[in-house]
Write a structure and sequence with these properties.
UDP-galactose 4-epimerase, domain 1, Rossmann fold, 2 domains, 10 helices, alpha/beta, 12 strands, globular
């Protein structure tokens, strides 16, 4: 059994590769824009998914039984700056992957990683959001994820491809980029502890409530739903618990090794920001038995410790 991970050198891809290595005897191939260092037992391969010939070549060399399609531009702020590039990148990468699989006569199970961002600013009475919630994308990244979701449906119907869709809510954990809110707070705290910056955390909207889930629980869900009998299905991956950004920040500050001030930063505010978003994983739990295993507090501790190590290396 061979599993191919697009975006294999990214935050989620690295955690998925580590999880599959620990839990399966599969051959694991991690694709990235460049051939990055990989875990022992994981094959790294460079592939630009915007280049159809490159996709054909890598699939001929590593014909997969399972594909985890994680590769995408994922930053909402960057999507507002470059909406066209975000949409084109995320759509073309998936189209090239699907077209290549179809043209080469391959028949893997394909997991397509979408996003809860497709649901947008749903009303409070709709919470927790389930998979039947209508799309209401409120930013360019969310639009690109709607496109990816619908492309998965279309190729499944048109070419009988065995595709499972997932819509994860906010995931956190060690190794995440500082472009995301929890990692941003953790990095600022770690840098302030080591005297590299003034003891200040700069913040955006602290009142928004989101559904945070440890990335290690997320990738476990991905493995469990990547099954041929679940082709055509879509699953939320969520904790089901809303937590305010203020609550997250307060917990991280309580872990800090020195007093740190909080200052608002208008540059960190989104043009549109739903006040409360959280999801239901009832369908996922009923289909696979999956439940979150890593406590939220542990996720924050691990994230902050990871940033302490990274900042120390950088400094």
């Amino acid at each position: 059994m061979r599993a191919l991970i697009t975006g294999g050198s990214g935050f989620v891809g690295r955690h998925l590769a580590a999880h599959l290595r620990a839990e399966t005897d599969w051959e694991i191939v991690a694709l990235g824009a460049r051939r990055a260092p990989v875990l022992p037992g994981v094959t790294g391969a460079a592939c630009d998914l915007s280049d159809r010939a490159a996709v054909d070549a890598v699939l001929r060399r590593y014909p997969p039984d399972i594909v985890f399609h994680l590769a995408a531009r994922t930053s909402v702020p960057e999507a507002f700056v470059e909406p066209g590039a975000t949409l084109i990148n995320n759509a073309i990468a998936q189209i090239n992957l699907f077209e290549s699989i179809h043209a080469l006569g391959l028949d893997p199970v394909i997991l397509v990683a979408g996003s809860s961002e497709v649901y947008g600013p749903a009303p409070p009475e709709a919470m927790p959001l389930d998979e039947r919630q209508p799309f209401l994308p409120a930013n360019p990244y969310a639009v690109s994820k709607v496109v990816q979701d619908m492309l998965a449906v279309q190729y499944g119907l048109s070419h009988q491809m065995r595709i499972v869709r997932v819509r994860p809510f906010n995931h956190i954990g060690p190794g995440q980029s500082e472009r995301f809110v929890v990692a941003s707070f953790a990095r600022q705290i770690a840098a302030a502890e080591q005297g590299l910056i003034e003891p200040v955390v700069r913040v955006g909207n602290l009142d928004a409530q989101r559904d945070f889930l440890d990335v290690r629980d997320v990738v476990r869900a991905y493995r469990l739903v990547a099954q041929p009998e679940l082709a055509g299905e879509v699953f939320n991956v969520a904790s089901g618990v809303p937590r305010s950004i203020r609550q997250v920040l307060d917990r991280l500050l309580a872990l800090a090794r020195r007093p740190i001030e909080v200052r608002p930063d208008p540059a960190r505010l989104r043009p549109s920001d739903a006040p409360v978003v959280y999801g239901s994983s009832a369908k996922l739990q009923q289909s696979t038995g999956w439940e979150p295993e890593i406590p939220f507090e542990q996720s924050l501790i691990d994230t902050l410790e990871d940033w302490r190590e990274r900042v120390a290396r950088e400094g």
